[in-house]
Amino acid sequence: SQSASSKPPSSSSSSSSGSSSSGSSGGSSGPSTPSAGETFRVNGKDYDAYDAVCRVVAAELGNGNYESIKAQAVATYTLLYKRNQSGNYPTGLSLGTPSSTVKQAVKEVWGEALYANGRLMDVFYFSISAGRTNEPQDVWGSSVAGYGSVDSSWDENVSSAFQRSVSISKEKVIDRVWEYLGIDLSEVPVEDWFTVESYTSGGYNGKMTVGGYGTVQKSGSSAFRTGAAITGRILRENVLNLRSACFTWEESGDSIVFTTKGYGHGVGMSQWGAVEMAKQGYNYVEILEHYYPGASVK
What we know:
With 298 residues, the chain is an alpha+beta fold. Helices cover 30% and strands 15% of the residues. The radius of gyration is 20 Å and the shape is elongated.
């Protein structure tokens, strides 16, 4: 799974995603960078390590305030360093054009990383929480050192993006549920289409039933198998394409209106939560140690 959500807050110059935004040659950006010749492989290409971190930070949180950018820089450095050390090179990361502010912030915290149990962490972050973060096992089924479910009610201050509604035609919902889950809703009353059976530690939809079924009847996706438990995550990511697995729904004529809170998987650092924490005077270490409660920065 990618560490970031699909479209976190970004600088206007980094709207394209993946390797398409890598542009010019990715070699060393000169001896003046703090990486001293070290390189990181990102999206199948080698970059000067400092340049790589700056580019990812620019795409992820280029418009953040200073302490939130530094927090993102440490998280990004940890991610790229660990993945390059292990040979599990990151792919599909968005790369932006870093501003002088981003470059300075990355330089200030260069070499600092997140550690849990004495080891580099596996780092995840996302755009906006639904008010509280998820444990990794809530989303991916296995625990990861350094994490916990923590309050992130600051995110509600991001009023324009915290809660969104999208209308999907009943016909399209029926088609997608049949295509991906092998469940026929065409003769099922709308009020029985979706039921939340449990919630995650962060308050997102956990196990769900669709048309009375709690498991996938016939998988139409490589992301899960026939017989897998149906979860809010599967519906959000693979069936309905919603911003968050914290969602409700209501019938409206020939459509279903889905209302989501937050944006992304909800694990680790909320990027907009980090921005709001920085506004309240928290520094980057305090931000990181809040969102990664079992970790330390060093």
